[in-house]
Amino acid sequence: MHLFVWQSDGWNLSDGSPITRALTEASGLKEGVPIFITATGRYDEHLNAWVQELSLSAKSKSPYTWYNYAHDVRRFVHYLERVDTVRGRVPRPWFAATEDDLFEYHGVRQDQSGGGWAVSGPTWNRELSALHHLFAWAKRKGLVQEMPFRMQQGEMVIAVAAGHGRAFDQQVTVMQDALAARRSTRPPKYLEPHEWADYLHIGLEGMTLNPDRRARAHDGARYVPDPAFRGRMAARNALFAKLLVSTGLRRSEANSLLRCEVPDTESVFDISVDDAAGAPQRKIRGTDAEIMLATAAVKGRTNPRPIYIPRGIYRRLQRYVKHERAHAVALRRAGTDRTGEYRVPHRGVIVELGERGTYTVPAWDAKARVLDATDPQFRRLLYERQQGRVVGPAQLWVGEHGLPLSEKEWNSVFDAANARCSAILGRPVDVNPHDMRHTYAIHFLQRCIEALLERTDVTRSPGTSVEAMRRIYRDPLDILRKRLGHQSLESTWIYLQHLEEVQDLANEAMTRFARDFGLDDE
Known about the structure:
three-stranded antiparallel beta sheet, alpha+beta, single chain, five-stranded mixed beta sheet, 17 helices
């Protein structure tokens, strides 16, 4: 079973294989929707109908959910085919799976013996959710009479042939099971300042270590230009990573930004401040630029979210628009006809931007639409027209040939940086865009707490001390929650658990407790 994802620029396949024919026949699909193609090149009617319905669900708006669920189902289908082949049976369709199949699959997925199938608790939770969604759909469509599991007081129960119910320690709605205990013990992966410096300068900017070991000990002398480096978009790649690590943006959120959302104006440094409850917001001049992330680009898609970009990074973004980006777009215009108009790819949507975050699509109608409602996949299709001429992509980030960058292309950038760092530093380096978000969260929270500890006296009266501790830990967490776009403070607690300052506070508290209760005598 093969899994493909429909992209805006089509498949670009011309080998004439059965798989290619099946893909080219799958026209009119929604951007980012996975497609199941069998090994013989057959369009799988049932699985594709399921994933199409999934993409239209109000609860599953994200293309990442579509792909992850489809990938989980594909793995289960592959497992069934493999088991039947090993046992000398004719491979069954996925909807013929039994309770025993699912129970055995659960065992394989948590087997830590090194067979390559074991997964973490959160991953298994997602897989089980995907299978639950798939078989519930199959039951509604009449493909199965009964699901290969049942629900009992919120638990998923496997009723095996022997008649003994086997329950997963799993709340489907809460998404927790016995394996998920690993989630609380596995810290988020983040970079220390020196690791970030190595990754930025060596991996992304293409520098190398100074061969003079004594010079490396001095700031600014650790890195020197690498004459063998041939990267042409190093400045852009480094800027994207700096944006992620300085704001905590997700890869999809940062890549969804439009050129018009990074205006060249001083007003972006006017930060909104809430005064008393019910009072209107006021603006103050800050050190960071405040821009709004579109609702449709935010995970969960509830409300637009303000993001705060350090002044230096924002200035660099403005220079990127004026120079590197403008040069890449000009190269694509130069390759067109004599008019010099930008050549829009297949399925591109030409738009004219209006005031107050609106746009129109002249080829459709004159209706003014809101940019805030455009999701990242559709934003990548937009090409801006000014005074009757297409001037380039609406998306901020473009490749060296002037086309909008996809999120997968950013993964390739980080993969190449990992390989380069590993080779030069002589140790494995594995960093992905989401690690930038964790790095921001850990260090932002740490510095917030340090600043409040310096300002707050917790040695006064007990009541004041309690209020001070609330300010020191609860308030920075809530600030971080808002900046990361978490709906619940619970999602942000993971960063507090792994701060060294919190561990030191716990050790000090235990020392005082033992002293006060006379428990510290040896």
